[in-house]
Inverse folding.
């Protein structure tokens, strides 16, 4: 088996964000053409965001190519600054291209209900019996494992890990620019060319020349804005809530002897929580949407109602919610139950939070590597010590709680009950 | 039943092409929220183009909102120039919004194999038993019929028809800009603001102030470029060929007693060519892609092979083809048959042609209404008489023929046969 | 005298920032065509910034049209929300168009040395014997005075004043977008359409719907970035220092019996600080640059050296400077004097500072009107109470001090002296 | 004298068109900082176009950096495809940077009246006693001469010449993109990245891969549009006519003993047509505009009137003109003379023409090198043989004639005469 070399002729993809994606390596070309990677065309990058921003219909395939391209450009700027072997460079490129290969359809909701983590599937695809594994192994028997470790942040070379997973990495840079472009929201723009120009590699990661501090600030602000304007949009989250409830109900029915009109064959392994790699790889958005459409005409009124809501974008309404107000939630739950609206499916608190930047945090969730600036003197200084704006938001986690409910069902209740609920929710006619 | 009025507050959609889509009319808002219109979210605007331009993943929902918005702006520029009643304006807006509502998944290929025209379904959705029909009827019993006539170009008011169907209309202007934006191909750009500024209504259509001639020229060039660069791209057409063959094979099997592992319930009416409106409305890309995925593991080798090709983007290769060379095609067909590659599914000529602009043509296909310029003197002159560039391309239909075949299958044949085929095709190792 | 009405046909200017500038009012059209307004074509918007950002060569004419256009759009969004008479609307448009009409060439440096304020000249042009005054008086004898008051912020209607002078007004919004566009710096971008959409008028000013808070945040961040990245760029300030020193020297020579080779006729009134309106109006960048070029060959070595530096962009170098380090400055001054480099012209501290946003400040300089958000409940809340980012930077003035000096002259000194200076400045070979 | 090498650190200019201009060579850096090159900051790229498109205020400095940057990128794509020595590459870069260095203010009009060609000055600056010459000579005594030959198209290496002067070269590509950007006219956009990607060097020039044909077509259409929309705009040409008449009158007065209030010292060599290099280099737009402003108050009524028109943008009006209608011109001339309007200064035919593309033409003016496409077979084919659009416009020269006159002066004449003139001109009240 010969190790893969360069293509006879460079291949390019026209890309609206980076103008062109350039592929010179046979290895990369073969990975892109593998079934497991092509499958990402059938999974949306932004899950349910297209219900809020109709432009946000792009796939994870689209984004993955973009991350690869940014990585390729980063490596180009590293030329002459740090010594990376050809294998290490290909490792970076493969990790960038494949970092999301384990994602499934509507991962956020799907994983929550069926209790798994797409990162485990990413690993399984890289090291398991797949085309991607076979392609990677042409670089050496250990190569798939290494790619997997880079993506899992356990690889020994911290520089390589940080290029794909840090507070300013190829993945984040691509999705901010890309999601901004497709949704039409212009908060996600920042000067990536400048950031790449001032990025410098060192043994354990990267730093940025001080002269580029404002570009980095601008990136962090873009990130902040995109999170609150797009990713955490309450309408998008309403669609996620509905989706979660669909999956929850479908699973519940399966475990309670419900007879489906059409058996959801492809989903049974997930209902049973016994999923083989092959089952997982045959899952895509078409499969999920197919069953949601079938279920619209199922007999179970909760399942069919939720599916209809999702397909026809008749989502749940919401109000701000104080997470400490346990009494309110309990009361509403009771009124809902009495009124015949099952609160397990129609009353939901969705919370979200974001930490725009942090320089040091030892927590369960995620440790943050600080962004370092290199002063003219050569000294390295942590970003928030120089940037008043970044300092202001460092370590400040912002939370958002919303309470979701079906306004149309409430309005259809007898006036008295409906009034009681509305009074508790603090909403008048329309939300 | 009260006629729909204005919304309490204007609604907006963030749109990357027109920045914002503005909705003030209750009628439009309700149409957008109807299940039949929401279904367009599950149908891609550009069919299989995403295989060539990964950015082209946007839906017909996306485009339909854009056509509506352009129409809204056109009507704004008409204020004070021509008298249109509120009903006529709403007629324009509804026709713009709904002109594609009858489209199905991958229409181009699907309609060819199952022999129907999505325009008939558009009509059926407007005048049949649908939510859209009920919403439209609030404007009067005849209103749905009128919308249908505008879209079908049979409505008596030629001005209104021309706004949605002419050589420079709201539909074409939106799709050129939109498809260019999402694919990242910048040939589709033209100055729509200027075109709208110089557009003037008259009884039977519109004309353009002479001062805006260059903007109109530029639009026609954009159209020309987008057709040849994007819409007719040979790789996109290869995916269409594969898709057509999938549908053809699936239908054939159905009519020849093949037993499907999983019965393609939603497609049976199409196989039988007996489709009810309800069947049609439950069809979307998820359904088609679901079955393509199922069929990948069907026993029939042709069906499973074609489905695998489509899903994994292992498409057919192509060479230029001289449509008068009947002998070549016959010869190849024979060699293919002998070699065990069924030419009905693996050898296909795809032809396409475009007429970028015409000022007068009485043909079966389509009559072209000329684009008129208004000179400073007030006189109306047909565009190609003033524009040397448009004159140069007027009435010149350009054709393109490609012959598609599975290179991998040919390469797997015994060297001698493979060499004979390659020699006939005029291709060496790689295409 | 008839009051000016609407133009027969709308006039438009192609504008790269707002796409088109629309003029419907005869009054505005005539003002644009007045000599005093056309003069703004000969004065750069960004003074010496083009030495740093070569794209920043646009004129105040360019910007003034933009402010007018934003004001026109603001008034459009106010339709139906507040009652403004035709006169009041024209007052807004005139104030927007003419707010900078009193600017002279390189105002920043020129005004400092010749001790005047361009705002006084704006007033003089509006109420004095000028074409602009004659045009404005067609609206009534008091109209020019009113325009002047709006620009001077003394007009009684606080709403009107705030549209042109507040922390988020037509002037600032235009220059941030425009300067970003021409320089190519993309930090200045924000979503002006959204801001205009959520802007609501009330008696004493404007507020913004809470749903648009992020767009306002983004505007404030853009402002912050543009100040530090573009407006306060140390190289631009170096050019300003050189220019100031040129004016200072030219004035000094005039007051000390120096005989100019060519008498700077147009500048004499400024040297004498006795300037008539007519003198002022005949001043533009061409006049200043003409004399700078003449002075390049003057006998006075300081004047000719400084002019050569300016023309050939051989500017002063700089280091960070601690404003409290009086000793350093005194020492350097002495060494410079001894070394024959006149410190009055070749050693200069330039300081700058910015307060990105403030909600309340009673100071000599400028009182800041807070930006108010309207919550869904109707309540008005000051921006920084809702925005963690704005809160973080509110009222925090940031300062920057730089010490400027001619590195080439220092390098030409005997090694010992040069070394002493360099050691004090903390610079090695290159800066 | 050591030959110039690489800079310690790459320098960049922020450029709105190419995002960044990169300078790695000491030689280029020094050339940019030379007084002769900095002088280009004081000369507008588009002459009087800013009267029509207010955004078109950018300088030749701005454009020259852009041409250099495109050349730098072209050379990058040539790496590995053709062998160019370091000297040859620097020759290309210098020729790109300096190709316009001999331009003076408002060259078009200025050169016509004072009868010289800026190309001769370009040569003089390169080979004469200038800083630029001294800098270039560090590459070898013959280097300045070589740069001059490349710009003059007489250099032996045809490939190098064609990169800067052909139908698709670095100069044209930059000005189309740049002028489009600053004016805001979007007709000038084309996909330069794609063009550079498909450009291939050969001994005598370049060719383009057939796959990029549409990008080349699009470039040619952009060129065509920019010429007719921007460069030949009749209002811009009106300003040129006024300017020409100013220079013509000023020169006439000088030769007829007129005593100027302020002697136009810097212009005397031009009046005498005896210009030294030093005189030429001290000329810039500031000097010309300075005198135009002085002349506004000269006693000669023609000179002062024309200068006022130019400064206050009170230009001449125009009508279409048939160049064969000698009688009309003679008649008008007579009526003008009788009415006291000197036709030598107030009646002018301005003609312009453009040949968008040609593949072969032996003419006096300019020989056109055809654009060649390389087919997949390797064969080279001339563009218009493949592109129906380019074929349609090849070799078709388009002409435009306009007759310019002062409408205000005509309107001020006795009604009878004014009516007679207007009737001949075919204009009513307003033009």
């Amino acid at each position: 088996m010969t190790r893969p070399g360069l293509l006879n002729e460079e291949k390019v993809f026209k890309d609206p964000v980076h103008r062109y994606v350039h592929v010179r390596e046979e290895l990369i070309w073969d990975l892109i053409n593998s079934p497991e990677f092509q499958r990402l065309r059938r999974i949306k990058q932004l899950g349910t965001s297209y219900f809020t921003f109709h432009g946000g219909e792009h796939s994870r395939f689209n984004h993955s190519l973009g991350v690869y391209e940014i990585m390729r450009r980063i490596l180009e700027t590293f030329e002459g600054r740090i010594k990376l072997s050809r294998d290490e460079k290909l490792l970076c490129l493969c990790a960038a291209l494949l970092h999301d290969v384990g994602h499934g359809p509507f991962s956020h909701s799907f994983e929550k209900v069926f209790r798994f983590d797409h990162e485990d599937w990413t690993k399984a695809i890289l090291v398991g019996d797949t085309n991607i594994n076979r392609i990677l192994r042409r670089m050496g028997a250990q190569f798939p494992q290494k790619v997997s470790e880079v993506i899992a942040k356990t690889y020994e070379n911290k520089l390589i890990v940080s290029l794909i997973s840090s507070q300013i990495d190829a993945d984040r840079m691509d999705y901010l620019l890309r999601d901004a472009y497709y949704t039409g929201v212009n908060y996600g723009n920042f000067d990536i060319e400048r950031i790449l120009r001032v990025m410098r590699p060192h043994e354990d990661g990267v730093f940025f020349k001080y002269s580029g501090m404002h570009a980095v600030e601008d990136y962090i602000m873009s990130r902040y804005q995109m999170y609150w304007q797009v990713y955490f949009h309450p309408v998008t989250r309403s669609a996620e809530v509905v989706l979660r409830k669909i999956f929850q109900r479908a699973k519940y029915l399966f475990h309670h002897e419900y007879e489906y009109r059409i058996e959801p064959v492809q989903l049974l392994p997930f209902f049973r929580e016994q999923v083989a790699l092959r089952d997982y790889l045959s899952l895509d958005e078409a499969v999920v949407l197919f069953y949601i459409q079938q279920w619209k005409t199922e007999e179970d009124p909760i399942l069919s109602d939720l599916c209809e809501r999702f397909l026809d974008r008749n989502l749940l309404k919401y109000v701000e919610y104080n997470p400490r107000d346990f009494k309110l939630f309990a009361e509403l739950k009771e009124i809902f139950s009495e009124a015949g609206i099952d609160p397990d499916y129609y009353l939901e608190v969705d919370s979200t939070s974001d930490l725009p930047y942090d320089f040091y945090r030892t927590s369960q969730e995620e440790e943050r590597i600080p962004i370092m600036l290199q002063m003219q003197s050569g000294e390295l200084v942590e970003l928030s010590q120089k940037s008043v704006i970044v300092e202001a938001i460092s370590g400040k986690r912002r939370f958002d709680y919303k309470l979701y409910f079906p306004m149309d069902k409430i309005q259809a209740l007898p006036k008295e009950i409906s009034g009681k609920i509305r009074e508790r929710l603090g909403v008048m006619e329309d939300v």
